[in-house]
Amino acid sequence: MAIGAPAALRQNVPVPIPVILDVDTGVDDALALLFAASHPELDLVAVSCVAGNASLPLVVDNTLRVLHAVGADHVPVAAGAQRPLIEPARDAGHVHGGDGLAGIQLPPAERAAEPEVAVEFLRRTILAHPEPVTLVTLAPQTNIALLLRTYPEVTENIARVVFMGGAAGAGNATAVAEFNVWHDPEAAAIVLDSGVPLYMYGLDVFERVSVPQEVALELVASADPVSSLVGQLVNHRIRDRDGAESVYLGHIGDAGAVCSIVAPDALRTEHLPVRVELAGYGRGQTIVDRRQFPGEDLFHGLADGWVDVEVALEIDDERIANLFLDTVTKRR
Q1: Which of 79, 258, 327, 331 is 20 to 30 Å from 29 by CA-CA measure?
Q2: Which domain holds residue 112?
Q3: Does residue 75 lie in a domain region?
């Protein structure tokens, strides 16, 4: 080892992975931001915001407040697309509350978002970084699609795109489509077609990781403000079809996608062909081809449009939940 090697290498400490998060900050994006800003093996370089769980102004404000709460005011935040590429904007107020943060009151951040729009900000930030960044999309992929179509040269400095979206099984926005992809399927299709290495953290694993209710309630009562915030976010309940409050779920949601970067061996993945359906009731569905043998479509020239994606299919949910809790609440 050279005498002038960085201290982290001399001490055999992992060099932090540079990540940029693209968010539509609702409850679970907030949990993901807290984790990304707290884990020593991640370098949260920047955050871009897009409409999704809430309107863009609310998403930006929520993002700034969450980063302020965790002492990450140094992380720049940029505002991006206010609506999908084609469809009108839709929010998820029935899940995240009218303000996107389930009514949880956080002190305002004493700063504003960057003056640049997200596409310009992302281009400058990615190209200026000394090493390839991991782009983590936890929202509809409108910002990322616009970036890749406007400035395709950024792909040279993107290690991969980790996206929370899609499903190999059932959906949630519709019976077959997951919300982030359903919200802007054209954007998701553009990102899939970009040639960047892709990792899909979909509903198949998203819905598996949760925090026990007794732990969440303990966190709510904690004197540590970040731990209390985590408890309130995890303890949030969504409404069922009849408008009644649902049972406790305790999902960490989007945060699991960020955890997977730190603990990739906690998930079982496969490289599989994936495509996004753009028409009919299936619009927004990520079709994941898990066949062992070729089908009639392959024999008759009807199999265009598939992209190789590393798809997360199984997860050690207890390990990921503990990783999340140990990081954001400093449990030891």
Answers
A1: 331
A2: 15-328
A3: yes
pTM, rounded to two decimals = 0.91
Alpha carbon distances (Å) from 24 to 137, 196, 245: 9, 22, 23
How would you label 85-118 residue by residue, b for 16+ Cβ within 10 Å and e otherwise?
beeebbbbbebbbebbbbebebeebeeebbeebb
Other C-beta atoms closer than 10 Å to the C-beta of 292 total: 4
Give a yes or no: residue 115 inside a domain: yes
Give Cα 125 distance to the centre of its chain. 19
Which residues have CB under 8 Å from 141's CB, separation 6+?
22, 163, 165, 180, 181, 184, 187, 188, 190, 191
Helix (H) or strand (E) holding 317: helix 317-328
- The answer to whether residues 44 and 36 touch, using CB atoms and an 8 Å cutoff, is yes
For tokens 């782009």, name the residue. Answer: 135
Quote the CA–CA distance of 302 and 304 in Å, as a whole number.
6
Q: Residue 31: CB partners within 8 Å, gap ≥ 6?
A: 230, 233, 234, 252, 253, 254, 255, 324, 328
168-216 residue pLDDT tens: 999 899 999 999 999 999 999 999 999 999 999 999 999 999 999 999 9
Is residue 247 domain-resident? yes
249 pLDDT higher than 90: no
User: Which candidate, 315, 313, 303, places its Cα nearest to that of 273?
Assistant: 303
Q: Which of 309, 305, 311 is nearest to 275 (CA)?
A: 305
CA angle 81, 37, 63 (to 5 degrees): 35
Based on the structure, what is the number of domains in the chain?
Answer: 1
Amino acid at the residue 215 = V
